Amino acid sequence: MTQLESARKNKVSSQMRKVANAENISVSYLLSKISQGKIVIPANINHKIKKICGIGEGLSTKVNVNIGTSTDKSEINDEIKKIKVAIRHGADTVMDLSVGGDLGKIRRKIIQASTIPVGTVPIYEVAVNQQTRKNHCIDLNISEILQVLTQQAEDGVDFFTIHAGIIKKHLKLLKRHTRILDVVSRGGAIIANYMMTTNKENPLYEYFDQILKIAKKFDVTLSLGDSLRPGSVLDGSDDLQFSELAILGKLAERARNQGVQVMIEGPGHLPLDQIEKNVILEKKLCNGAPFYVLGPLVTDIASGYDHITSAIGGAIAAAKGADFLCYVTPSEHLRHPSVQDVRDGLIASRIAAHSADLVKGVKGAIKWDKAISLARKKRDWKRQISLSIDSEKASAYRKSSKSQLSDVCTMCGDFCSIRLIDKCYRKSKDKTKKVKV
């Protein structure tokens, strides 16, 4: 049975127990939310995962890291290094978005190396295979699509991004629309290219029930991709985006009816004041399905710093109810990310996630802040560093600039505010003791 089917039969899986323990919630709460489709546990029956991940209502906000080869950069060893960095710095899931090299071999190595859930976008492999053989426009044959899906599921992929929400009617809207950037989703563009060239319907939409059968057999969670997400803040919250979202809501219901876990992917670029209504609308149209937001990036002008624009948008989205953040690296829109880019993007996204958890009242979130604040008050540098979200960087900064006084930093030195007030309190207590004597 899938996790969803088990929950509906009130059967507690080992994965559910691990999630309940990690989140400090009751198993009964978890069963209820999984049954309703408001929590998912991506866990393919063929993938041994050490860090089980629950995503959805009432749980801590999760963070995904994208890795994978490109047509210009296809060295698998670099991607394995990124996985190790992602796991070491607290990623909850990783997605293999490879489009260069031997995709099957790369995927299997990534799954083998990953102790956290792995996601893919299967249509990439279909497209790469088509171009390799024919070197012209992509022909999306459903039998080949299902073959790729089956192989990836057998390999142990825990969640698929499926771009089933973009359909032929959207192409007419695109042609007369005033969007600055038409389609920025790579998977969405592949599907749109096929439909425009052949005048046929999206096969992922047409044969969705067959995709569900594969997902159900291996308990692969579906992440319904937003092909028409805005690629500029000027395109945010338009009719195209919301039309696709409505279709995704209906597809999500079909998936749940078949016992398949499902979540919904969300917008990429949005102004700050549109984020809340996007989260509210997704929860309404998709019956509370976990919301996986791609950023959102709140401005388009920060090339080289889009891990920051993404963290700003992600913090707001998660605070308003989004469940899952896809990190963005500093190299977004510019180049294939390096290992350092992966680390910087992940830490920024994890800060956003935790900031949102404080607002959402996630159990245990505030304890972390309290612990580091108490260590700061005591000027306990060792504990401060160990509690920092990136303790390696905190330690390096501390060592790089040492104060003459061991219990302060070089920012304030002798005039450390915490130290000054602490000394005043101590003198006051000493005087009180002497008076009593």
How would you sum up this structure, described in words?
This protein is α/β, with parallel strands linked by helices and 437 residues long. 52% of the residues lie in helices and 8% in strands. The relative contact order is 0.10. It has helices spanning 3-8, 14-23, 27-35, 76-88, 103-113, 122-134, 142-155, 168-176, 186-198, 203-206, 208-218, 239-257, 275-285, 306-319, 339-360, 365-377, 381-387, 391-400, 417-436; strands at residues 39-40, 55-56, 62-67, 93-96, 118-120, 159-162, 221-224, 262-265, 291-293, 324-326. The mean pLDDT is 95. It has two domains: 3-360, Radical SAM ThiC family, central domain (TIM Barrel, Alpha-Beta Barrel); 401-437, no CATH class. Helix 4 (76-88) links the parallel strand 3 and strand 4. It is globular.
Quick tags:
19 helices; two-stranded antiparallel sheet; eight-stranded parallel β-barrel; 437 residues; alpha/beta; TIM Barrel; 8% strand
- Please give the CATH architecture of the largest domain: Alpha-Beta Barrel
- How many helices? 19
Secondary-structure element order, N to C? HHHEEEHEHEHHEHHHHEHEHEHEHHHHH
Residue windows where pLDDT falls under 50 for at least 5 positions: none
Strand order of the largest sheet: 3-4-5-6-7-8-9-10
Counting structural domains, the number is 2
Mean pLDDT equals: 95
Would you identify the CATH H-level superfamily of the largest domain? Radical SAM ThiC family, central domain
CATH topology of the largest domain: TIM Barrel
